[in-house]
Amino acid sequence: MQPTGLCKTVLLIIFVSSMLNGTLNACPLELPTTAVSINGHRLIVELAATPQSRRCGLSNRAFLDENQGMLFVYPRSDLRTFWMKDTRIPLSIAFLDDAGNIINIEIMSPNQTEKKYHSSKPALYALEVNQGWFRSHGIKKGDQVEMKHPLITRDSLK
Q1: What is the average pLDDT across 102-110?
Q2: pLDDT at 27 (0 to 100)
Q3: Would strands 33-38 and 112-118 be described as parallel, antiparallel, or unpaired?
Q4: Distance CA 10, CA 20 (A)
Q5: How many angstroms separate the CA atoms of 64 and 22, rounded?
Q6: What is the pLDDT of residues 58-84, one digit of tens each?
Q7: N or C: where does the chain have the smaller number of CB atoms within 10 Å of the terminal CB?
């Protein structure tokens, strides 16, 4: 059965509305979520534990809820570098060691590829949140991110 003209119009309106509201993105991955806590402040984070999900990150999103973020999980500690290609949300990133201690925090500007953001030491995790979230919650270098062992898939070991 072919959609009617009205049905096509409604589908187009839903699609455009979803794009404007940021519910669709260029990386349509459904990622598992978990809760983490820093100094008693709770965040719900999407887990980017595969090469594909780490590449996509928060790119092409229109917004990020106040107490949400993305936790990048790597198979081993190493120096990490991030950039903001196709990322429309101003973010802050915390690089974490194997124990979840914050190594350093960087403020990231949206929609640019010139600046790179680096961990100052080898990091096993990186935590992205809305820009200023760490500062407004008094979170700093050396604080510990409390988390259940993040989901690590076979793909993340590549």
Answers
A1: 97
A2: 64
A3: unpaired
A4: 15
A5: 9
A6: 999 999 999 999 999 999 999 999 999
A7: N
Give the global pTM: 0.79
Q: Which phi and psi (to 5°) does residue 138 adopt?
A: 70, 25
Report if residue 125 sits inside a domain.
yes
Convert the pLDDT of each residue in 18-39 to its tens digit.
343 344 444 657 899 999 999 9
Q: What are phi and psi of 144, to 5 degrees?
A: -105, 135
**Residues of the domain holding 126:** 29-157
Annotate 86-115 with DSSP letters as a single string.
T--S-EEEEEE-TTSBEEEEEEE-SSEEEE
CA 111 to chain centre: 15
CATH number of the domain residue 120 falls in: 2.60.120.1140
Which whole-number Å values give the CA distances from 78 to 13, 81, 143, in the listed order? Answer: 45, 10, 20
Taking the C-alpha atoms of residue 105 and residue 139, their distance in angstroms, rounded to an integer, is 9
Q: Which amino acid is at 82?
A: F
Residue 16, domain member (yes or no): no
Domain-located, residue 99: yes
Q: DSSP state, 121? A: S
Q: What domain count does the chain have?
A: 1
Alpha carbon distance 141, 137 (integer Å): 13
Distance separating alpha carbons of residues 127 and 138, to the nearest angstrom: 16
Q: How many other C-beta atoms are found inside a 10 Å radius of the C-beta of residue 156?
A: 19
